Amino acid sequence: MKVSTQRQAALLLAVNGLFLLANALSGTFLNVYLWKSRQDYAMIGWFSIAQQLALGLSFWLAGKWVKEHNKMNALRLGIAVSGLFYLLILFLGGDTVRYIWPLGLLLGVAGGLFWLAFNIVYFEITDARNRDFWNGWIGLLGAFTGIVAPWLSGYLISTLKGERGYRIVFILSLCIFALTAVLSFFLRKRKTEGAYEWLEPWRALRRPDSRWRGVAAALLFQGLREGVFSFLIGLLVYIAAKEESKLGQYTLITSAVSLISYWAAGKWFKPEFRSKGMLLGGILLVAVITPLLWKVNFVTLLIMGMGTSLFIPLYMLPMVSTSFDLMGESSDSAGKRTELVVLRELSLMAGRLLGMFVFIAVLTVNSSPRVITLLMLGLGLAPLGSWLILRRRLPH
Description:
- There is one protein chain.
- The longest helix is centred in the first third of the chain and has 35 residues.
- The chain has a single domain, classed as MFS general substrate transporter like domains (Growth Hormone, Chain: A, Up-down Bundle), CATH 1.20.1250.20.
- It is globular and about 55 Å long.
- It is built from 15 helices and no strands.
- The protein is mostly helical and 396 residues long.
- It is a multi-pass membrane protein.
- It is found in: Cell membrane.
- Keywords: Membrane, Transmembrane, Transmembrane helix.
- InterPro entries: MFS, MFS_trans_sf, Sugar_transport-like.
């Protein structure tokens, strides 16, 4: 990788890190904020479903803009819309729960615009030889922001008490989004890539010899787990501990473990370890849920969170690298990278939506701690489904 490309990669990671920081400051406690207004699992689930629908659709619709025009403007608009979302939360206050669907859709559009542009540029400035290394750095940044931001947010909300603390946290996020937007202007404009093919994600799956069928199915299994776990764990920690500061401490500890595990994975995890790593990671990700079968409290949730943070790189790094490597296996697929990134996201979206529909259906009938734990165990098996599908195409 050339020095100039390395600098662009580092700058892109800085933009990514600030975007994650702003979202982690407020996003960690967003569902808690909603829960305190209305204790309703289904409401939180529908809010997440609205996000995922908008995320997937904005990936597909914005693909034309990103491929044929300036993808950096899509990235900047994603940052701006994220700021607008938190501005609306500040304005609505306690009435936020009355606008779950429009707010969820807005947050999904923001994420779709940012992550589509980010993934395309990330693909362009990395290759199969160094992708695991850069994936490790992305994990490190995510872990670092997870250490700093939620602890600070939890401290501010607990110290300032109630609505005032939340407002301060949301304002901090707005300021960081503004800084992220400024930094993004130092990223070079990328070349356009030809005409956008709207139906290419569908065609990629329909081809008789398509390798994307298996990858898309594996991504669907990944989405099954993460769609529910991404919002449920933090909410369970708050319900168990009844303090925002405890959720901040939980996220600090689990993110510190994640920081170490992603650093180690980035340093030592090689492509030839992907198959065994995915299998081991999938088994261990299920095993760490089992303490909740005895009791759902702060301690057992912390054990699960630390275990998840420790083992998830074994699963996630092969998942990310496999799909991106497939995009770059030929000049034809590389030329259709925008459409293939859209296919990747739509596959994840399908899994997330399926998982969340199951979550809402089950918890509408019974929301006891035992049922929630069994549901988590069932969804937690999904990484093993990804491994079963990909095991023959992964390096051994």
